[in-house]
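User: I'm writing a short methods note and want a consistent example. For Trehalose 6-phosphate phosphatase, I'll paste the sequence; you return only the structure tokens, no commentary, since I'll be parsing the reply automatically.
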Amino acid sequence: MVSQNVVVSDANTGIITVSNSSVFTPSAQKPPTVPGHISISKKKLLKNLELSGAQSQRLNSWVDSMRASSPTHLKSLPSLSSEDELNTWLKRHPSALDMFERIIEASRGKQIVMFLDYDGTLSPIVSDPDRAFITSKMRRTVKKLAKCFPTSIVTGRCIDKVYGFVKLAELYYAGSHGMDIKGPTKGFSRYNKDKPSVLYQPAGDFLPMIDEVFKQLVEKTKSTPGAKVENNKFCLSVHFRCVDEKKWSELALKVRSVVKNYPTLKLSQGRKVFEIRPMIKWDKGKALEFLLESLGFENSNDVFPIYIGDDRTDEDAFKLLQEREQGFGILVSKFPKDTNASYSLQDPPEVMDFLRRLVEWKQIQQ
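Assistant:
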């Protein structure tokens, strides 16, 4: 359970504004610079960035991780492409389409609540993040889904950007990895008819800092062809999907050289993207929990959340569902990955098939 202070604003807006300073962690301190052995080829660059030997080693592991997140590299690794390993992984995380009846049986007598990531789940992963358009078929499917179940999109994108892609006012949106939560537009969803709209922004105090870092990253990375910095309001993304692999190490150093000056921000990596977020106790799992409480399912045994996502940041939500022993997480991936999800789907077309089957099942029940 998430402990929050909830205050209802004036009657004209009908917005619930939630604020609780307890979600902030103490400011991290800059680690001391410790001399360490570094290779001659990187010596000058690393010295300028004050990287220690341990930090240099961490950079190398980051670059390895960057390579591992590439579908090209995944296909080139025999251990991941082997049929035996894939079959073993699928036994632990079977297809949600194949196990559809079992999922439905587990949800009997409970309210299904849907949580969907956007990139790689509802839309394909594309080279240009500004062109990650949802198909009209997927939009119609999600619209029908929202008529049957409370439905949220939980994404690293800013709400305005993802809403511009989806264009469905009846959904709950949790942008910036759950740090910007907004309920359906009044009158568009039957699930919030009797409730004021929801607004939750636990990282509001970080906005000036995020804007400042965004400008610095744009300036710092402009000499790296293919790099794209995206301002997601409460967090930042540095996309390297279109960056030559030979430039990845250089880009990682540039990004770190900016972020290291802001100890209350943390740097992590997703699918060919660096994520810069406020160092607060908040993630997609916390967002899921908050949305369940907003819907009236706090400490309820009659709710069945289903979370579908493809990225590392979705693992916090998968883990939460495991801990709650309610509902299931579904990982979208064509390759074996370590995950807390119970089931799997290969790609957005399979996600759409699964959502359609849910809608068809619900319509039969009504």
